[in-house]
Amino acid sequence: MHTNVTRLIAVVAALAMVFTLAACGGLQPAASTTAATTAAATASQAQAATPDETQAEKTTLTLLRWGSADQAENNAAAVYSVNPDLAEKMDLEVIIGGRHDSDVAQKCRLSLAANEYLPDIVQIQYTQLAEFAEEGVLRDLGGIWAGYADKVPEGVLNVAKYKDTFYTFPGDPKFKVWYYRSDIFEEAGIDANQVQTLDDFINAGKIIREKFPDSYIMNSNPETDPDDLFMLLSGNGGRLADDDGNYIVDTDPGFRAAIEAMRKINEADIGYNVLSWEPEWEQGFADGTIVAHLTAGWFKRYLPDFAPDLGGQWAVAQYPEIGGSVGGSDGGSDIYILFNNIEHPDLAVEYLTKLRLDKETSIAVMGATKLGPILNEALSDPRVAAPDSYFGDTLASAESEAIKTLKVFPYGPAASREIDILIPHVARYVNGEIDIESALQSIKTDLINQIGNSKNPK
């Protein structure tokens, strides 16, 4: 009788976990790790286990992210391969909060408003860090970073904190790099490593168009991708507001230089006019329509899927200086954060410390998912510097240089709203619909009217 009661309690507890997650801001686990599947497995195990075995069950650590669960699950498998003791005491359940990182941020806002438990680990973009840090709802990770502050590149260290407080485990460092078709560039007589300025880039684009009329050196997003703008701003010191939160876009030289460069590129007619992440855009990398791409290091995980037959023909170089921008990043990095109101903070810290701050584990993770290490001793390891099966020896050499100049734009607590406000105006200017003074004044007016102050938004 005692054993039956124990089994019943285990089943009820597992089902309760399902309803708790469902109520938590609408969070839904990924298809491969649904809460219902987890509950069924737990119930089945409880029916077959003795009371002592039930007490020894693993802890389920939850991780909320956007898009797909594949990378997070493969990361976990790599972590377990190096740390079997960790595998014995935990399982990672990946919860998908939506298609975009903004969906994840909104799920967190809803859970915070309802005073509900949040997943143990939340993966967002650095862009959104200031909002939650300013609200005082994140765990201070300074105790962890005290032992690692001198063991990562300066740019990575900046991604780990907001102002002077450490709140994150950086995920993929999104330093700027340039992907290009080495065979096409060679035939056109272009040395990508000598393309260093805006004029160099435009001239190279024109040569490509002359030699290969159906090919383009970039895609030109007609709606203007925010990432393109902030990759320039992060490297040229451009700002939206001053230290007091007052908007200065109309007078900031970096902001002006960035959007002027974007318009100059657009007017040169060297870009393929297509929205990013549309099927036509993805196909363009495979069929020779798009033969280069200015972006960040994360793109290495996607290009081999877009153009699987072109291994050895795509290479990596440094991002040219455009709009006065040297170095920088696409949003700094994706980041792992821990909210105050979570169930397993110690285990979450242990897992993330292994994932990102352990040399052997981070190298194993890189091999599994191409998630680049952030520790200096891992970055200098021969296994990390080895030629890539798709990009050859250009990938490691380009990344080792780019991470040295990783910089983060000073996003404020209203960053997501600011970007939504300014991008339509920038797009109109880049597309030649309005002059620069009209664009800058319109941006400033709307920012003031809708947000007020960057540090203390309405």
State the main characteristics.
458 residues; alpha/beta; D-Maltodextrin-Binding Protein, domain 2; 8-stranded mixed sheet; two-stranded antiparallel ribbon; 12 strands; 48% helix; globular; disordered N terminus
In words, what does this structure look like?
The protein has 458 residues and is of the alpha/beta class. Among the domains are: 54 residues; 191 residues, Periplasmic binding protein-like II (D-Maltodextrin-Binding Protein, domain 2, 3-Layer(aba) Sandwich). The protein contains 22 helices and twelve strands. The strands form three sheets. Strands 1, 2, 3, 4, 7, 10, 11 and 12 form an eight-stranded mixed sheet that branches. It has a two-stranded antiparallel ribbon with strand order 5-6. Strands 8-9 form a two-stranded parallel sheet. Strand 5 and strand 6 form a beta hairpin. The N terminus is likely disordered.
Question: What is the element layout, followed by pairings?
Answer:
Layout: H1 2-23, E1 28-29, H2 35-48, H3 51-55, E2 59-65, H4 70-82, H5 84-89, E3 90-96, H6 101-113, E4 121-125, H7 129-135, H8 142-145, H9 154-159, E5 161-162, E6 165-166, E7 168-181, H10 182-188, H11 198-211, E8 218-219, H12 226-236, H13 253-267, E9 271-272, H14 279-287, E10 292-296, H15 303-306, E11 314-318, E12 329-337, H16 345-357, H17 359-369, H18 376-379, H19 382-385, H20 394-402, H21 415-430, H22 436-450
Parallel strand pairs: 2-3, 2-4, 8-9
Antiparallel strand pairs: 1-3, 4-12, 5-6, 7-10, 7-11, 7-12
Helix pairs in contact: 1-2, 4-17, 12-13, 16-17, 21-22
